[in-house]
Fold each of these.
Amino acid sequence: MAALAASPDRAVRVGGYWAKRAARAQTNAWHRLQKCAFETLRIKLFAPTWAEDPSAALAGEAARLERLGRGGFHVPDVARVTPESLLLADAGREVHETMRHADAETRLALVRRCAGLLAKLHRDGLWHGRASLRDFVLQGDTLGFIDCEEDASRLGDWARPRDLLLFLQSIARFSGDGALVKEALAAYGDLAVKAQLAKTLRWISPAIRALSPFRQSLGRDLKQMLIVCEALA
Ligand SMILES: Nc1ncnc2c1ncn2[C@@H]1O[C@H](COP(=O)(O)OP(=O)(O)O)[C@@H](O)[C@H]1O
Ligand SMILES: [Mg+2]
């Protein structure tokens, strides 16, 4: 793990593997928004899931990756777990990265495939814990998941709507008018998870709109959330 020690990055590629270190305390804008929303509204959709114990989080991530792998999903093989780091086989290129450099047609095809895979995961009774476009990878033509770091088990029935919300928000980044988000929703299909998310967002969207004046500090997350609310309305 010398490569990891020498790098400022969270994960470092070493040959056909990725070495990933334990997380530091996380306090980005999304985490603050999420914590604030959960504490004021007590809606499980926003319950914090980031790890308080970074070493336990790595072991949890390894276990969740293995669970998805047993379910037939393409995920990295776990080569080694220690309290400080994970060693994972390379599972392909981040879809988010591919999206950044892709044309509109490729983006649409990718979003539809990711939505279909997320729907399959959810139909199988599983969840990812976040499922943003950064958590999907493409290896050759095989689509799969990485980064199962967030433990959504404490969310119970809300783990899957939460996956869907974060997935849609990550697409909203590429879709100012919401068209791509609507395509993703169509490709996801009519799972009860979608209705469950729509119902909650209908209820809280006025509150989200009311937060608009704070866009400067919470800007992108809020804007994406508004696009998702509108696409699901
Ligand atoms: N097994 C893997 N296969 C392919 N890419 C990986 C793998 N593990 C990590 N990466 C790359 O490293 C980045 C950071 O790793 P990730 O597990 O997403 O940690 P985090 O997002 O919590 O920092 C990923 O976005 C991806 O680009
Ligand atoms: Mg990641």
Amino acid sequence: MIMSKEEQLLGCKLEDKTICRECGGRCCQTTACEASPYDFDCDRNKMIAALESGNYSIDLIFDKQRKVFKTIGNMFTLDLSFLINSHEATLYMRPRNQGKLIVDVIHIGNRNYPCIFWNKYEGCRLPYEERPRYGRGIIPISPGVCENIYDTRAMLLKEWHEYNEFLFQMVKRYFDEDWYLPLGFTIR
Ligand code: SF4
Ligand code: SF4
């Protein structure tokens, strides 16, 4: 199998603990890094297990016009058909942020929420190989200055597209309260 340039780079360990220690983990303190379906071997049962462990969340990449949201009467909800047909927005998975719910698709205000796997003494407690793909893709250049070998937004839109209905149904079936309790939203 021919590997892409990104895959070859990902095969090398891109982390630099010295730079990240000096930085203090600014990225991980802001929000968790993004996972790929390949982090779960594209296996929906593994995705369910990760969500049920309480360590992973479902998040949302919005489209620019915010058409992914719709209202039904006075209810605010997600437009599943837009998610399935547009390729401009997607649900996806990432580690949970500390103090946040499993369904974590609306971000209001500028407050940062550190990743559940991060603490200030050890940094990321996951071994490098077990970190989400788009966290492994970060190349630290100097403290707080990094590049990612991927165009993360484009990759998330591409890779998670086929899981939109599955993640939508997961929210409805198992985590509905996460969706409507804090903000009064609902999924129908
Ligand atoms: S140097 Fe970059 S990758 Fe390392 S902790 Fe800081 S922001 Fe994160
Ligand atoms: S999984 Fe690790 S690298 Fe990714 S945000 Fe969390 S603490 Fe940071």
Amino acid sequence: MQIQEAHDLLDPTWPQVLIMEDEVSVAKGLGMVLSEEGYNVDLAMTGRSALDTFNQKMFDLLIADLRLPDIDGMEVIKQVKRRRPDTEVLVITGYSTVTTAVEAMKLGASDYLSKPFTEDEFLSAVKGALVTKEFMAADAAATPLEPLPEDSLRLTEVLQQIRQRFTGRQQEVITILQMVQNAVGYIPIEALQQVADFTRMPEAAVYGIATFYERFRLSPVGRHVVKVCRGTACHVKGADKILHEIEHRYKLSPGQTSKDRMFTLETVACFGSCAIAPVVVVDDKVSADMDPDKVGKVMKDLALNDPKFEPR
Ligand code: FES
């Protein structure tokens, strides 16, 4: 089985939505509205069942009620975002306050809808939450990074060491994947195929393990990692303009690495440094009160001082 087939198998038709709502009639009603629009919908009536479902399946969007019979909806959002930061979250609640709205946005929720709301308001919030994800997915898919010759060289060497050191048991897969990542910097697709052969596991299963653990990367990382905060405080003070400047200047979307492997762009829900917003972190160095010009200068200086810099 090829990797693309494995991916399709693990992450079927887009978009997958999980509705976490304890009022059965509301949950079913919202589910029906989305199903009619072509969304794939799962329902969870409690926080725990939402987390269980989330652990078994990939979701593009979590629609989260905050008051649940067992655990706090905020806690569920926190765990979901920790496990898979790219899951979009739409909060729906009958007990809205500014504090809870700010808290939800800080946790990474894309939108916040107070009950009661109309079907149109609900649908437009769902579509809005998924727009960024759709755009990023399409953009990332359009520009896959080719492995460099040195990647292939390092991969060959490390696979040789792996064959000498391991016996090919399935329990060894995680350690083997970690070795590949340590040697190459990420896990190339061809490595997944070779690890599957070596351990006699289906490629889909190896792919599933590599995508399940956050520590594994399936694409190269740049020599400099630029993280832009998109939390509420930074958003209010112009984080989007900073992000737009980087996207425009370096033709990068969040999650992507530039073709020359100079920069990887990432976004973060909150660095916990809201008092100095907007915040950008470059290679673990925190920069306060940023604006598009300042971030442009920081990145330009890094590029000029990079030994592999080649003027375009
Ligand atoms: S919102 Fe907290 S650091 Fe940006």
